[in-house]
Design a protein that fits this description.
The protein is mostly helical and 381 residues long. 64% of the residues lie in helices and 2% in strands. Strand 1 and strand 2 form a beta hairpin. It is globular.
C-alpha cells in the first residue's frame, strides 16, 4: 500500500508510474504500425508514394487543369474545341454542366423538371427519417404512405394544375430511386415470409413452394427475370389489362430481391439457439408472438451486414432495366454521351455517375455500421 505524507496541512500522494513518452503519442503509433521493421518501412514508403502520386494526378486532372465552361454557337451547340485541345490533361466538366438535366431527369418535360427534383428530395428525406430510431413507430408507416402518394402525384401529374407525364417520359435518378425504394419496401416482408415458410415443419406444401421459388429465382440472372416480367407477365393478365413497363420491372426486382433476402434472413434464423424458441414456448406464446417479438428481432440483428450488402447490390442492379426500355440514371448518362460534341468525354460522365452511386451506397453502408453497433452494445463479442 502506498504511503501518504502530510506537510503543512497538504496531503501529497506519490506519482503513479507513467509510460515513457517514447511509447505514447502519434510518433510512437507510427513507429509501431508503419516503421517497425525495414520491411514495414519499405512497404509504407512505397504505398505512400503511390497514394501521393495518385492524389496529385487526380487533383491536377480534375481541379487544376479542368475546364468548367465552354462557349456555345448561335444554334446552342457546345463548342468543345477547348476540351479537345486539353488532350486529356484536364477534365472537361462542362459536359456535366451541359447535360446534368438530361442525366438526372431523363426526357421529363424541361419546364416540369422541378417535379422530379422535388421527388428526389422527398426520397432522401424519407430515407433520413426512416433511419432515425426515434421515428420507429406506427406513424412511420403513415409517413411512407403519404410521401409515396405525393411522389406519385408529382411524377404523373394530371391534377392540381400539373401536366400529365406518362411513364415513358420518366428517366434518370427518380427511376433509380423508385425501383430501389419500392423493391426494398416490398421484397423485405416477402423475404421474411419466404424464410419462415422454408423453415416450416408443419406445412410441407408451403415449404416446398418457398424452396422452389428461392431456387428458381436464384438460379437465373436478373436479366432473365426482367425479360420474363416484360414478356410473360402480360400473358397472365386478363384480356384488356395492360401493365406498363415500369411496373413490370418493379415486380421483377421485388421477386428477385425477395429470393436473395430470404436466404439472408434464413441464415439469421438458423444462427439463433433453439433455447430462444423453447423459452418462448414455455411462456405460452403463440407462433406469431414468438416469431415477431423474440425470434425475428434477434435474427435480423445478426444479419444486418449481409442485408445491407444485398440492398446495395440491388440499388446498383437497377441499371439493368435498360434491356426492357427503361432509362435509369446510368442509361441517361450513356444517352447524354451520344451527343456528337461530347462523345470523347465519357470519363467525366462516368466519374460523375460514380460519385452519385457511391454517395447512396456509402450512406447505406455507414448507417448499417452505426445500427449494428447500437443494437449490439449489450452483446459481448
Amino acid at each position: 500500500m502506498s504511503e501518504t505524507t502530510a506537510t503543512a496541512g497538504v496531503i501529497s500522494t506519490p506519482a503513479r508510474d507513467q509510460p515513457p513518452a517514447s511509447l505514447v503519442g502519434p510518433w510512437a503509433w507510427l513507429r509501431t504500425n508503419l516503421f517497425s521493421s525495414w520491411w514495414s518501412t519499405a512497404v509504407t514508403l512505397a504505398l505512400g508514394y503511390i497514394i501521393v502520386r495518385v492524389i496529385f494526378d487526380v487533383v491536377m486532372w480534375g481541379v487544376v487543369n479542368a475546364i468548367w465552361t465552354v462557349p456555345y454557337n448561335a444554334n446552342g451547340v457546345a463548342d468543345t474545341g477547348v476540351c479537345q485541345l486539353a488532350k486529356g490533361s484536364g477534365a472537361c466538366w462542362a459536359l456535366i454542366a451541359d447535360k446534368y438535366r438530361l442525366v438526372l431527369f431523363g426526357r421529363y418535360p424541361y419546364y416540369e423538371q422541378w417535379r422530379p427534383a422535388l421527388v428526389v428530395v422527398l426520397f432522401v428525406g424519407l430515407y433520413v427519417v426512416s433511419a432515425m430510431r426515434r421515428f420507429w413507430r406506427k406513424e412511420l408507416l403513415l409517413v411512407w404512405l403519404v410521401t409515396l402518394t405525393v411522389i406519385g402525384i408529382l411524377m404523373w401529374g394530371g391534377i392540381f394544375g400539373m401536366t400529365y407525364v406518362p411513364e415513358d417520359s420518366w428517366g434518370g435518378l427518380p427511376i433509380t430511386l423508385i425501383l430501389a425504394t419500392f423493391g426494398a419496401a416490398f421484397s423485405f416482408p416477402l423475404a421474411i415470409l419466404v424464410a419462415l415458410g422454408r423453415r416450416s415443419r408443419n406445412l410441407p406444401a408451403v415449404k416446398m413452394l418457398c424452396v422452389l421459388y428461392v431456387e428458381l429465382i436464384r438460379g437465373v440472372p436478373l436479366i432473365s427475370v426482367l425479360f420474363m416480367a416484360s414478356v410473360m407477365f402480360p400473358l397472365f393478365m386478363p384480356a384488356g389489362v395492360n401493365v406498363n413497363k415500369l411496373l413490370r420491372a418493379q415486380i421483377a426486382f421485388i421477386l428477385f430481391a425477395g429470393a436473395y433476402l430470404a436466404e439472408v434472413v434464413r441464415g439469421g434464423l438458423q444462427a439463433l439457439p433453439k433455447g430462444q424458441g423453447e423459452a418462448a414456448d414455455a411462456l405460452g406464446l403463440s407462433y406469431w408472438q414468438k416469431t415477431g417479438f423474440i425470434i425475428l428481432p434477434q435474427a435480423l440483428r445478426l444479419v444486418i451486414p449481409p442485408l445491407v450488402n444485398t440492398f446495395i447490390g440491388f440499388f446498383k442492379d437497377t441499371s439493368l432495366v435498360l434491356i426492357i426500355g427503361i432509362f435509369d440514371l446510368l442509361t441517361m448518362g450513356k444517352v447524354a454521351l451520344s451527343d456528337p460534341p461530347w462523345q470523347s468525354f465519357s470519363t467525366e460522365m462516368y466519374v460523375a455517375l460514380a460519385v452519385i452511386y457511391i454517395a447512396f451506397c456509402f450512406a447505406m453502408s455507414k448507417y448499417s455500421r452505426n445500427l449494428e453497433r447500437d443494437l449490439n452494445r449489450a452483446r459481448v463479442r
